[in-house]
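In the lab's daily routine, each protein ends up as an entry in a very long ledger. A line of letters takes care of the sequence, but it says nothing directly about the fold. The three-dimensional part falls to structure tokens, numbers that each stand for a local backbone shape. The outcome of that step, for a single protein, is printed below.
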Amino acid sequence: MSGRLGRTLRVLIWVMPIALLVIFVLGREFLGGSAGWASVLAFAFSPAVLVALYLPVVVATFDRRARDAGSLRRAFTWTTIGWYACAVGVIVSIPDGGDSGDRLSPLMTWTGISDSASEVIAVCMLGALAVALAASLVAATAGVVASRRIGQGPTARSEQP
């Protein structure tokens, strides 16, 4: 990674999970959708969701050997960008329901698609989000494991007490 892009991504991996939850809870109104029970549930479950979103970041960032070896940067960066994109897709496509009936998602407002079509898109995006988040965790873990293997040839192992 180049220096400027690397710094930007290091900041984004800490800011984006919170920003995505804030956008889901409050920002749907600004995007043309409406807030209902999905926003209330997102707010209620936000601590658990934040733990899931920050787990790969913590694994990737706080392991000094992996960070110094640079063994996880590219794969972790692309999988993280992938789940950010999927999360934005979920935010704009998930239809919301309220006590007064169905509420429009931003995607329904923008394109005029039906509630069921928006729901299918949201379910597909949620599946892709789960896969991308798991891939991000696998990439972070693989980078840590790879950093442990760097420099541990037969001579390095025999020198350890």
Observations:
- The beta strands are 96-98, 101-103.
